[in-house]
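User: Is it possible to get a 3D structure for a protein together with its bound compound? The compound here is nicotinamide-adenine-dinucleotide. I've pasted both below.
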Amino acid sequence: MKIATIGEIHEEGLKLIPKNKFDIIKITDTSPKALIKNLSDVEAIAIRTSNLSSDILSECKNLKIVSRHGVGYDNVDINYLNKKNIPLAITATSNAVSVAEHVLMMMLSLSRKLIKCNSLVKNNLFTEGESISSTYELYKKNILILGFGRIGKVLQKICHGFDMNIYVYDPFISEKDINSYNCKKIEFMEGIEIADYISIHMPLNHSTKNLITKKELKKMKNTCFIINTARGGILNQKDLIWALDNKVIGGAGLDVFTDEPPKKADPILISSNNLILTPHNSALTLECRIRMGIETIKNIISFIEGKPIYSNIINREILT
Ligand code: NAD
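Assistant: Yes, that's possible. Here is the predicted structure of the complex:
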C-alpha cells in the first residue's frame, strides 16, 4: 500500500508507518498536474495545506482515506469524498493549546505595544519608552470568544488566569455548558460592544464569511483588540484596515489572511504598530507539529487496520 505525504509530516509520525506494509511517497511538487500524476495509485493521503480539489481527487483511483494535518479542512473537497464514501480525518486533539497560547501572545503584545517597545530599544531610543501611553493589563478585562470549540475552550482557561470576564458567542453551545466553564453566553452584537478583546475560533463557511465587517467594527470600543487565528475572511480584511487606519479599534492580530500568502502589494502588509501579523503558524510549535504528525498518521493506520478513530473523522456518517 502507498501513503502519500503532501507537505512535511514530523518524523515522529512517519516512524509509526510499518515499512513492511506501506511505501511512503513524499510529494513536494504541489501543482495540480504533479498531484494528479503522483497520487494516482495511493491508498492514503496525509495532507497539510495544499488544495485537494475534486479534479485531483477523482484521479486517485485507489484512495481509501485522506488525513489532514490540522483541524481546518477547507483545502479538501469534502463533498467529493462524501460522494465516494472516503473518510476525511483531522488531528482534532493536537493543536488547541498552541493556537490558544498564540492568541495570548497577541493579546499581551498588542496591549503592551511590544513591537514598538522593541524597536525603540533597538534603535537607541530607550528614553522614549516613557512616552508610550495607553498600554494595558488583561486583568479584569472583557474578552469575547467567538466559537467555543476546542481552541475557544483552551483560551477561556488561560483567560481565567488573568481574572478576565469571559463572554462566549456560539449559537451551537448551550448556556448551561458555557456556564459550566465559568463563562457567560452573550448575543453577538452585545458581545462586540462590551469587549476589550475579541478572539475568533469558528470555521469559515457561508454563514461566518464576513461575520465582522465595518458595521461590527464601528460598534466596538475604540480600544478593542481583535485577533483572528481561525480563517481569513471571517473578519473582512479591507474593513479591518479601514478600522485601524481610522483608529476605530485599538489594534489587531492576524495569523490568517484572505489570500495566503498575501500578495506583495496587499494593503494588510503595510503594518502599523497596532497590527501584528504571523504567517499562519500559530499551530506550528515543535510540540504541536509532533502531535499533529503522530495523529495524522495514526488516523491512516488505524483506519486501514479496521479500527477507525471515529472522533477524528469529519464525515463519519459515511462509514455506518
Ligand atoms: P471546533 O470545531 O472545535 O470549534 C468551532 C466552534 O465554532 C464550534 O463550537 C462551533 O459550534 C462554533 N461555530 C460554528 N459556527 C459558528 C457561528 N456561526 N458562530 C459562532 N460559533 C460558531 O474548531 P477549533 O479546533 O476550535 O478551531 C477553530 C478554528 O480555528 C477553525 O476555523 C480552524 O480551522 C482554525 N484553526 C486555525 C489554526 C491556525 O493554524 N491558525 C489552527 C487550528 C485551527
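The chain has two domains: 2-94+286-319, 96-277. The domain at 2-94+286-319 is CATH 3.40.50.720 (Rossmann fold).
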